[in-house]
Design goal:
heterodimer; A: 265 residues; mainly alpha; 76% helix; B: 329 residues; alpha/beta; Rossmann fold; Alpha-Beta Plaits; 2 domains; six-stranded mixed beta sheet; four-stranded antiparallel beta sheet; 37% helix
Amino acid sequence: MATVIQRRTGFLGHTLFITGRWLRAQYRQPALIAFTLIQPAIWLLLFGQLFKGVVNIPGFSDPSYIAFLTPGIVMMTALMNSGWSGTTFIADMERGVMDRLLASPVSRGGLMAGQLVSNATTTLIQTILVFAIGVAAGARYDGGVAGYAVTVVASMLVGTAFGSLSNAVALLTRQQEALIGIFQFVSLPLTFMSSIMIDPKVAPHWVNVAARFNPVDWATIAAREALSATPDWSSVTRHSTYLLAFTLFVAWLSTRAFHTYQRSV
Amino acid sequence: MSTPALEAVDLVKTYPAGRKNPPLRALDGLTFSVPEGVVLGLLGPNGAGKSTTVKILTTLSRADAGTARVAGYDVNRSQDQVRRSIGYVPQKSSSDPMATGVENLVLSGRIYGLSRREAVRRATELLERFDLTDAGGRQVKTYSGGMQRKLDVALGLVHRPQVLFLDEPTTGLDPEARADLWSEVGRLSGDEGLTVLLTTHYLEEADRLADQLAIVDHGKIVAEGTPEALKAELRGDSVHVELVDPDIDGSVRTLLAGLSGVGEIVVEGNVLRARVDHGATAVPAVLGALEDKAIPVTAVTVSRPSLDDVYLRYTGRSFREASLEGEAA
């Protein structure tokens, strides 16, 4: 019997290896990269034109719609992109990859986190791109570095939260169709029952009530507030805290979903 | 003998009723043990419980009752140690199609704690051994089915496991790729005391690769032994008679049962199988009796007992029939 040359590799090591796997898979799909970058650009320019007139509604707080919309599109992009996250898990389950990994000593948390870190990297790049386009289109922000930092962190939290949710749904349903169906069902309400495109001051009351429970809206408020000339830091902190708590909760939930998956095989 | 490499005692597993399926008792008191360095073949049709057994032994699934030990570790209590001791080649291809052969192997090695250098060295070694060196730098999605399967086996060996699980290794491969994989797997057994658990629903594969066979039927082991011993237990020869018309009323069976030296008659459709003491003398007697009653016959064959006959003996139905049953279920 040859000596077993195994050493203990823990959560961090496994997260690193799994992140590498997904980043590599992403850069091998140039068409996918092009789409993930072009799509938010189109949204920003399309919605920017389409709803330009809403700033004229009495009560709308921001005179520049593109400046108002850009942080919203950042969050919407993070949400839309991360919803697909679970499809990679399902592809692994349809092959024997998931079973092989689960029969190995790989950290379950690392399996989840590696995929989410790779997802967050995409979100980061998209966020920078959306801002670049927004600024090119005339958006200006007074919030400075802190404002951008809050926006970037908030968008990555949105990506991580909904990415883990997508992974959890993938582990529970094990069907591409079901995952995509569920995601489509929730993504539009999350986008429109929020202040992403419309100032809550001019939105119907019930939308504002619904938005209060919408993590994507928490992120949008935190970002917009932090980017403004005179940020209300208590609002930024409060909404960021909600978002962080929500992200941690779903991340924990998704790791639990591995156990449910294993019970059913 | 030292501790067995694999040991399952009274495993029971029931899958709860689903939307479409009634509850299914996949394992019903399955017991077996495998000494170190042996290739055990679990032979049975689809649905017999082979994959469920593998899933429990690889910690993917939990048994409702019973105990199992792998490399001396309890599969429920010492999952981590079990996972470090085994290599698992699932039924479906287990490589990442977007990564190259080398990347797949290196990632797997890293997960088990090999340093980058060790992992690369091991990957090179395994690619060479499985004749995949030239393809090592290509993405797996460009591999043929046979190449992917060889890479799957290599992935199961990266960390030098003590026990390797091969779940239906050649299902879906063309005959050439199957023969190729058989010779690769054949070479594994001599390897560093590696214990292999192989599940298969191919009789020929079981006969060719397994040192020890366990026949699984309805979630239980119904027979165990070396392929030779199992066949030797069946005295005499097998006779297969193909009738023109199916034996609906059982008259053919009754007729042949009356002949001396003919036993264990099983009829499936218009094929009748029987065990005879001496093939050479039984054939004229069988044909004579059928001719007397004017029962038309298409063909008669005599053969030495095969694993198919062993299967028939212990389960009461031919392997082909059981496979069809498994697929319908």
